[in-house]
Amino acid sequence: MPDPRKKIEALIESLEALRLHVGRKDLVVGDERVNSQLFFLLANACLRNRAVLLYGGMGANKTTLVNLLGSSFLSLSLGAVEDLMVTGHPEQTEEKIVGFLDPRQWSRSGGAIEMLWTPWARSRWKLINEINRFPSGKQNLFLEIIQKRKLSYAGQVLEPGDTCYFATMNPEFSATYPLDEALLDRISASVPAVQPDFLSGMALAEREREVYDLAEELPRLSSQEFDALPNLVTEVELSPQVELAILCLLRDFTLCERAPGFDKTQLSGIKPSKGLCHDCHYFNNPEVLCWQVDEGLSDRVRQDLRAFCRAIAFLLNRDADLEVLRAVAPYVIWHRVTPSSSMLNRPPYYGARKLSFVAELVERSINRTLNERGEMNMLFSRAVDGEMTLAVAMRELSDYDDPIARLDFIPALERMR
Amino acid sequence: MKLVRFMDEAYQGAARSKKLETRRGKMIFSLEDLADLVGDKPTRAEVEALVPCDDDLLSKLISTEPAMKHQLLWGYLSSILAERSAGPLQLASCNYAGLELRRGTIILQAAGDHVGERMAGGRIFIRGPAGDYLGQEMSGGGIVTQSCKDYAFRNMRGGFGVVLGTAGNFVCLGKHGGRTVVRGDCGVRAGWLMHGGSLRIGGDAGEYLGILMSGGKILVRGRTGMRAGWRRKGGIIQAGSFGPESEDGVMGLDLRLA
């Protein structure tokens, strides 16, 4: 079997050469610059049971790009891939999306109950187009479906196998509905799809043939190659530095001195932006992240960070190091949190650059873990491994004015006593 | 795996001895934030103590048009950024640009009032006209501008100023030192109460040139207005020709000087 990565590289080149996607290279991984929209979609195509959301205005090549990639990865025509997607509108029902009981069976006697599953349900490449045009109640349907390997309806179960999930959405318009936080948490990464810049516009102007014709010229992966991708991604190892940085990143966002169990995901109603942090020791301390975002991060974030770091590293044929984590983490986190408006509204964010703000928080957490938390982490590790007494470790850790030391390490050692 | 080993691998065996310092910091993302901490009329030292270390953030702070009450702060920030910059700092028009500048170069497309005030070093180049109080109380460095309005180089103590076109009224009022050149004409009362330094005017000067001056040297290539050197106590005034009622002791330029 030929190396699937080579074919993906050929696909990237073809997309640009055929002027099917010529986005800005806005994802910086070390010395490399690539297009975030394309690479997150490719990364998701290399993973299974993850979901990537493309967020942007009309005509930003969101749906078409997902379908083009689907055409290449599933080795189908573009038209056939377009038939697989579902598009959001208020009249969509579970029956139209997933399938319904075959009415013909009622005229027959006996036999098992038969379902007519929709092409979308049967597909392993699921695109939910315009997801925020589904009314809020109908969005709940996707809570069950996204990241699952099977679908069920009326007691019948369909197992299409490991699936790649994609979604697109526009910013809030008159006919859209806000996305539920639980649904957003099931979306592994959210990527802004921006309009073509000047040079991209020039390049797109050179495209004279129809997209459907050009799509036929894209390289196609065999089903064997498509199925091999997850294993190839899993072979990429995450360095201990990255593992540690991910753990600390999650705790930085999630810990809250005033929340039940020090866990911000337990909060309901009262939040940092609604006065929870008033007079808190950590409030207004720029080095501490807890008060700067309302929500904590679930364990799904850890899984998504690990998976996408591996997948992006695989695509770029490099180690899954901290540079990859720095590049990937903002896209995995930013749609799941609400930054403090007092911070986000200020320059250089102006209330609009949420992704940049989250990237800054991520950078701060990683730098702090690597440069300032070494001694603290070693103390905790020695105590856990029994190399020093718990009492001494707790006394020394109490000198550290860090949320992780105070709210995570010391309580953990207390429980071990 | 033992947790110690995991940490050792994560930190690649490097001994990390630096303790955390979580201090109660203040985020400064706008001039309003800075003004909350130092007030609207701070000293440069107060601003310097709180100014962001991040040059990008500092650039963004001064890229916004300041409110009237934050212009002093903006001026200090422009100087601090110019001093940190490896190359010339290009700025749009604003009052107090280059306030107490010590080194570095600022290039302005046009200038408001109080540009280069109390500067001690560095250079300010203004591609358009400057407003009032240009280079007021400057003690070093240099300013080059196309033209300026009133009170330019007031109480100047050192450095140099060059006006390529015309200057307004009261140029070099109370000047103690430094060199000023106006290549065009200047308005009334140039060199008023001048104590030292030099003022050279390429064109004509207005009325009351060098009024009440006690030191320094004024040289006018063209003609002065009436009452040049009126109640002069010291210093030198030379001009191509003088208007009526000029003070005794002022001198005409000979051909070599011209």
What does this structure look like?
The complex is a heterodimer of chains A (417) and B (258). Chain A has 19 helices and eleven strands. Chain A has helices at residues 4-17, 36-46, 63-74, 78-82, 94-97, 119-122, 136-145, 181-186, 198-205, 211-215, 223-234, 240-254, 299-316, 322-333, 341-344, 354-372, 374-384, 390-397, 403-416; strands spanning 27-29, 32-34, 51-55, 86-87, 99-101, 115-117, 125-129, 151-153, 156-158, 164-169, 189-192. In chain A, strands 4-7-10-3-11 form a five-stranded parallel β-sheet. In chain A, strands 1-2 form a two-stranded antiparallel sheet. A two-stranded antiparallel sheet of chain A has the order 5-6. In chain A, strand 1 and strand 2 (32-34) form a beta hairpin. The longest helix of chain A is centred in the last third of the chain and has 19 residues, at 354-372. Chain A is globular, with a radius of gyration of 23 Å. Chain A starts with a helix and ends with a helix. Chain B is built from five helices and ten strands; from the N terminus they run αααααββββββββββ. Chain B is elongated and about 100 Å long. The mean pLDDT of chain B is 87. Classes of the chains: A alpha/beta (417), B alpha/beta (258). The A-B interface holds A 239-241, 243-244, 282, 284-288, 343, 346-349, 370-378, 380-382, 384-385, 387, 399-402, 405 and B 2-4, 6-7, 9-12, 14-27, 29-30, 33, 56-57, 60-61, 64.
